[in-house]
Amino acid sequence: MTDVQTETPVTPAAAPKNRPIAWPLGLAGAVLVIVGSFLSWSYDGTILNNLSINLYPGGLQVLAIIVAVVSLVLLVLDKGKLGQWLDVTAGLRSLGTGLSLFMVLVLAAISVESDGLINVNPGAYISLVGALLITVAAWLMPLRQLHDMSKAKSPAWAEITAIALLMAALLFTAAYALGLDDAWLFIICLVFIATITFALFRTGAMSWVGHAGQRHRKVLTLASFAVAFLFPFTQDGSDANMSIATSVLVFAATAMGLNIVVGLAGLLDLGYIAFLGSGAYVAATMSQSAFATIGWKPPFLVVVLVGAVVAALLGLVIGSPTLRVSGDYLAIVTLGFGEIFRFAMFNLDGNNGPNLTNGPNGIPGIPDLEIGGFNFGDVHHPFGIELGRFSNYYFLLLILTGGVILVFSRLNNSRIGRGWVAIREDEKAAEAMGVNVFGLKLLAFAVGAFLAGLAGTIKAHQDGAVSPDQYMFLESAFLLAAIVLGGMGTIAGVLLGATILKLLPEKLRFFSEYRLLLFGITLVLMMRFRPEGLVASRRRQLEFHEEDENLADEVEHQLVEEAK
Description:
Layout: H1 22-37, H2 59-77, H3 88-113, H4 122-140, H5 156-178, H6 183-203, H7 205-215, H8 217-230, H9 239-264, H10 273-285, H11 300-322, H12 328-347, E1 370-371, E2 374-375, H13 389-412, H14 415-425, H15 427-432, H16 437-463, H17 473-486, H18 491-507, H19 515-529, H20 538-563
Antiparallel strand pairs: 1-2
Helix pairs in contact: 1-2, 1-4, 2-3, 2-6, 3-4, 3-6, 5-8, 7-8, 9-13, 9-16, 9-17, 9-18, 10-11, 10-16, 11-16, 13-16, 14-16, 17-18
């Protein structure tokens, strides 16, 4: 994990003195936030999960208390030896600013949902003043130079405990956020999550956790999958939330395959959704649906392999004649392929061609999977906890996603992966060094398409129907956006990008008309301020730093020449 501190710390010689009033001011602000959170925030108890009861904090009040407690911890650490390793000031600035925004949104939500600020009780104003005091105190304190956290050695048990606690907090936060149905509650909760996360990065704590994760990679991997596995048990049988979770996993598995093509090999593919669609249509035509057009009904494991192979063959078909072009031309060709696939599915209706897809009507009525007597459409109650239909598909998709991640990581660290990276960086140089450029490009297309086909076969049964309209160009654009947003060539980045692009539209439906505008603004900001993505690949991060250094050298040289 990378350190995201953006402000340049001053050198010790030029560091401003810590003003004596800063520390007690921050302490007073944290105490005010806690006291205000135990008082009523709203006169109306029917909004925001009831913030109207004194001495009984509601959900949002508990979140404010958590931020205040973290601020108190940082203030205490600032007086101890551990504070020398952390940039307490940067963390407090993030917490104060985020908490102030949090409180402003709370006031706005109460005002909007209960007709005016007159319904805001004093407790909310007290907490807002406390948040502002924390912010002012933090800006009165000097920044510190962060230490190299790779040298911060800790006992193995402490590092493993920290990883376990972080994963547990992630599970609890995901369960709580998805359980919020009110749009205002969800937005304010996102501000809380961003505040805590950004503060941990700014202090350098997440850098230490990242190095601990590198030293205990197996523990981190096991903890991550344990959190993902336990997630359905926290949803109390909610099909709505589990439907979103299964959509995220399908999207993530498909994006991971595209990450091979775009992130590793550097090939811009704008028609990748066609490979997901081909796997889905293979599964639909071989299913037990009354509208299925193929009489052969093999076991589902055979259907999975057939769907993946068909998708890989399509990848070879489109790749063989087009991979000799690159850049914009390749993007245009792949975009055309995606549209050709969609229109072909429209026309294979028995009138314009053989009846394979039922044309625009698609293939509805696809039954739920049944493997070894286990019906994925039934409700099950392990340990007395209800797991519905989408929970069953979630576990199957989790296994698939784990396999896709394993394939990606092995290929990335192999000779093939290094060949793809060489092609991405400089195709001519790679070819001059003996790399089989055309063969590796074709392999990237085939492997990426194979993985998408696997996801498509499960998606058909989860959705219960397939139709050409499900596989439009816009879906390919979202897949590509997930990779760019999360970080090209990374695993965690793609998973994070897929989660953001699938989760937020579902929870923020009142923004549906502005979804494309928001995505566009987000990508523009990412390209401007963090072009390597939310989770940067080490290779690509080094490339960006080298480019910045080269640009600085060129500017310096130009200034010297102008001075002469």
